[in-house]
Design goal:
70% helix, elongated, mainly alpha
Amino acid sequence: MFDGVARWWDGFELWLAQQWFPIQFVLVAAVLLPLSAVMAWVIHRGVDVVADQVGGLRNAPSRAENTTDDGEGRTDAVS
C-alpha cells in the first residue's frame, strides 16, 4: 500500500518539477492556500475552545464567595 503511494508521489513530484514555473506556482498555490485556510480555521477554533474553558474557570466565583459567616447565601449573589 505505502509503496504504491510512494511511487505515485515520486511520479507526481517529477511531473510537477518538469513544469514551467508559473504553472508550478499556480498548482502549488491552489493546494496550499485552501489547506492553510482550513488549518488556520481549525487552530482558531481550538484556541477559542481552550480560552473559553480557561476563562470560564477563572471567572467562576467560588462557593465561599457566595456565603456569609452564618452560612446563609448572600442577598446580592446571582444564581
